[in-house]
Amino acid sequence: MFESLSERLDSAFKQLKGEGRISEINIASTVKEIRRALVDADVNYKIAKEFTDKVKDKALGEKVLTSISPGQLMVKIVKDELVSLMGGTEAELDIKTNPTVILIAGLQGSGKTTFSGKLANFLKTKKSKKPLLVAADIYRPAAIDQLKVLGEQIGVEVYSEPENKNAVQIAENAIRHAKSNNNNVIIIDTAGRLAIDEQMMTEVANVKAAVKPQEILFVVDSMTGQDAVNTAKAFNERLDFSGVVLTKLDGDTRGGAALTIKYTVEKPIKFVSMGEKLDTLDVFYPERMAQRILGMGDITTLVERAQAQFDEEQAKKLEKKIRQNQFDFDDFKEQLQQIKKMGNLKDLMAMIPGVGKAVKDLDISDDAFKGIEAMINSMTKAERADPDMIDGSRRKRIAKGAGKDIQDVNQFMKQFEQMRQMMKMMNKFGMGGGGKGLKGMKGMMK
Fold first, then answer.
1. Domains present along the chain, CATH in parentheses
2. Can you spell out the DSSP letters for 251-320?
């Protein structure tokens, strides 16, 4: 995400390379390039100008320490200002009331229904809640079916009244149903239109008045840029929503909406949503987003995603096998499955500081592990458990079964053995002592 903006900002910082200090003269072209980069990213010119004026004032007021360069100092100042522009700190969802009512609003096509399913999954798996999804879109029959499919996938009940054309009644009946079935969060998916119209606004305002939600989340397609900000203003004037959700951040987004929506409507971005998978929903952290925009990576989110797949009992068994040099192909395949659950592979690599630029032009498919899995699946149970028994003739058979060349199998076997040796060394120096290493790592993740 934000590749173009990241590149332009990086180019702007390079203009200070070789400078011994920051001055009015050498900072002028840098600030001008930053402003251009923001405007090209669909940031309103007035906001971009105000932003760069703040950056310039701070930069000229800072002393450049001997340990850092003017370019590094500028990166820090821009990062701090980006964090401030996007809200400073994360905004938590208000789910203390029982039951909590969350109203979902936005235009048709913004991803409201998919987000509703993702939010229900998030609250169920991460917050131990018992959510109820409510299909209150009375104009789009497919919306009810879509919500039911999503609910089935995540094991969450969906309340609907397909014949009822009164959204307020549906919402009120759903709350009664939730109270009698011990649902502690009610997520109401409302109707949208292709453009803002009075009927839609009146209807969603009436639902709000009837159910008095603790949260009103405005869902907006971040790919629509400045239009998203203008739509947010119109909705906020009628609904006074409590937070924004940015969807489709994995698309060809220029970043304008993410950077300026908080400034414009004075409401926090609470979630960012990427892709169709129901576990691809992240709490919005301004600092992490600023780091990613500036190519610094996002190691905290990467660790959190890894932690979500972390199984302590499984890790203990794995550590024991590594310690006894018994790590086999079944263990390796299991680790691959956990990595795949963490999300898009290219996105994950981009979270590692310094790696984002290296992989930005690479076409890294989520099927990148398919060839390796095919080779492991072509092995017998005994071969997977004892890699050392795989001789030349067995390798030929594995290659044929996986639809690969013998060179592919040889290379994979060599890399696997190198990885086993590395794990053995890591265990010897840092992971020994009855699981202390893994426990320490888990402590770092908290």
1. 3-85 (1.20.120.140), 100-294 (3.40.50.300), 303-445 (1.10.260.30)
2. SS--SHHHHHHHHHH---EEEEE-SSSTT-EEE--HHHHHHHHTT---HHHHHHHHHHT--HHHHHHHHH
Q: What's the chain's length in residues? A: 446
Q: Provide Rg for the chain, Cα atoms.
A: 26
Among 307, 271, 87, 285, which residue's Cα sits nearest to residue 187?
271
Average pLDDT over every residue of 219-227: 78
Contacts of 396 (CB under 8 A, 6+ apart): 406
C-alpha distance across the termini of the chain, in Å: 26
SS3 content of the chain, % helix, strand, coil (to 5): 60, 10, 30
Is 60 exceeded by the pLDDT of residue 382?
yes
Q: Give residue 18's pLDDT.
A: 58
Q: Is the pLDDT of residue 186 over 90?
A: yes
Which has the higher per-residue pLDDT, 431 or 387? Answer: 387
Residue 350 has pLDDT above 60, yes or no: no
Binding-site annotation: residue ranges: 106-113, 189-193, 247-250
For residue 34, CA distances in Å to 27, 58, 120, 182, 359 come to: 11, 15, 39, 52, 24
How far apart are the C-alpha atoms of 136 and 24, rounded to whole Å?
57
pLDDT band at 396 (very low <50, low <70, confident <90, very high): very high
3-state secondary structure of 22: coil
Percentage of the chain exceeding pLDDT 70: 74
Amino acid at 340: K
For residue 219, give Cα distances in angstroms to 107, 328, 403: 8, 46, 45
**129: its two tokens:** 């809640």
Higher pLDDT, 431 or 189: 189
Residue ranges of the annotated binding site for GTP are 106-113, 189-193, 247-250
216: β partners: 103
> What is the Cα–Cα distance from 345 to 333, expressed in whole angstroms?
16
The amino acid at residue 366 is: D
